[in-house]
Amino acid sequence: MNYILISHCDLSSNSGIHIKNIAIELIKNHFDCVVFVPNIYKETKDNEVPFKLIEFGTENVKEIFKNNLKADIIHAFTPREHVRKETERLSRFFQSPYVVHLEDNEEIILKKELNIRTLENFENVPLEIIKSHVVAWRISPRYYKSFLKNAIGITGLIKKLSDFNFGNKPFLEFWPGFENEYLNPKNNNIASKYKLPKNCKFLVYTGSVHDINVEEFKSFLFSVYELNRRGHNVKLIKTGNDSNDILKRISNEVSQHVINLSFVEREDLPNIVHFASVLIQPGCSDDFNDYRFPSKLPEFFATGKPVILPNTNIGLHIKDFKNGILLFKGHYREIADKVEWVFNNPEKAKKIGLAGKKFAIKYLSWKKNVKLIINWIPKLINQSQKNISLQTNIQTNTDDIRLIAFYLPQFHTIPENDKWWGKGFTEWINVKKAFPVFKDHYQPKTPSELGYYNLSYIDIIEKQSELASYYGIFGFCYYYYWFSGKKLLEKPLNNILNTKKPASPFCICWANENWTRRWDGLDQEILIEQKYEEGWHINFFNEILPILKDYRYIKIDNKPLLLIYRIDCIPDSKRIIGEWKVMAKNNGLNELHIAGIQYIGMTPEAPISYGADASVEFPPHMHINDRAFLKTDNIEGLDDNFDGYIEDYKQASINFISREPSDNIWYRTLFPSWDNTARRGLKSHVYKGSTPELYKEWLSFLVDYSFSAPKGQPIIFINAWNEWAEGAYLEPDKKYGRKYLEATCEAIHDFKPIFKDIK
User: Fold this and answer.
1) Is the model's pTM score more than 0.85?
2) Contact, 704 vs 127, CB < 8 A?
3) pLDDT at residue number 187
């Protein structure tokens, strides 16, 4: 099995040592393991570990396993933000499931660092503010819950951590093990090396002091002072680098009893720990300690020395004064009292220590405990594969934002277009004949890897869906053309329905307006009219019913999502929509969710007034006074015959962003660019200055808006996936390649995916 472990730290730390030991045991059981780390510790040599070690962000990961196949499973150690990004990046590339390992109550740690009581309000602030306050090695309030929900399973150091199993996924309690060096350490003259004083007793604290554990460390410090006050000559040996400066701030009365060795060589730690007369894990039951398995407790028990520890986490499995000594309050006097008992009862303390050692050998063995993972993971993968079902339902009030891109099907020939525009007409005819109208005007637009495709073939739509999904787009919204029973451009959608390919979510937008010769500037010449004759709505519903029932069809709160382009054109629209909902129920559907496009001049409330459940913003549709027109006199090299409109993309995006929120359900939309020169020539409407970076800024704002909107609005539309003749497309082109797609993924998931070939 190909197994990736993703560490939140390098292999020199306690957590890193745990991951190293897990990987070693997996390899012994014929797993091929690769470990990803934020940085490769400078003293970690290739020959020190029997697995491949790779730094976060490495692009060339295609052949990291011996068999050159993909990862079967990715095991992410903690849901911290840098781990989440790397896990999702690799999961997307390999199309592999992942499991998340929990070590701590990450919420309480973050709240402590931010000095806030709750994360609920913090989740909805703009992402840039979150990033400015939350470091990369902490959880992101924006992403970590959905990261856990999308895992196929959760592992945790202690059962209490299952409180954070938000998706109710299979949970495995997985205790750590001890390093064998702690059973019988070598005597390498530690006392002489570190110039430890003679004729005194030692206590040991190994590890860093942070804001989250500083109070319990204070209790340890004061207990040492208290023991000396009672007449015991006791010194505390402290190792590890601290982010909290408590040792610099304590009084001389306390500090004189502390030997601060700071960072020590790891091979010295077992000998230092064995110098202790008794080993102490300070603390008490609280929101931090209840959820952890202190990293040095396995080694403490393995030494055979008596261990004092809180009556929580692993302490709940210890018998007081049998195989350990429990703390119930964690106060410095309680620690001092129990240490003093050990000093005064050496024989009894020795028996407790030996019993603790037996406990460690029985329950804290890497070999035994990794077996739990070895047995669990294959079953988990098999079960998840059986349970795989396409998730097309979008729940409101969710922490997952869904992107839906409008999709134009006019890239195949139909008899009507042959008649109206000439034999063999498709949208590509317009695209190819476009020409620049000012200096540096990018025309004609030229597709790259997908080429000038023909949508008569389902394999093209499969490639499009694969590409869209990889970069974070949930599904497509196909324009649906129905004119009193006459359908146009229906072949791509029919192929999707008939072949059941691709397995990607989709919905439809009924483009219910007249077709005219608008491209030729002859708006008044109707090619095919949209009529609303008696009983039309029944015929229309019956036509779309098989589409709405398709297992891939997108639903909002289990209601099929139907978009209507010109809801204002439907006579008696409220009654019609009401009847459609009844018909949907009568046909086994859970009503309908009707979304009306916010047409030119409409407010977000207008589609609701016509009976829609929601309105859909539709740039570039907006009020004329909100336009971002540029003076044509300032456009270098502008064709003298140009008679269209040129607007500034950046200012336009600001104008859209600045719109007042709506109290109704309002699905926001953006376009990556807009330039309909291919259709309108010298009468075109162009948004100048569009870039992937500006598009990303706009999309990032809409993501923030969706998180904080008055009502649950987890959908964002993109206009469009492939409107090439309007210059509104995400598909790769000769100029930008996949940069717009990469910007999409970065705005939604906050990471750039690894470049992946689409077959």
Assistant:
1) yes
2) yes
3) 66
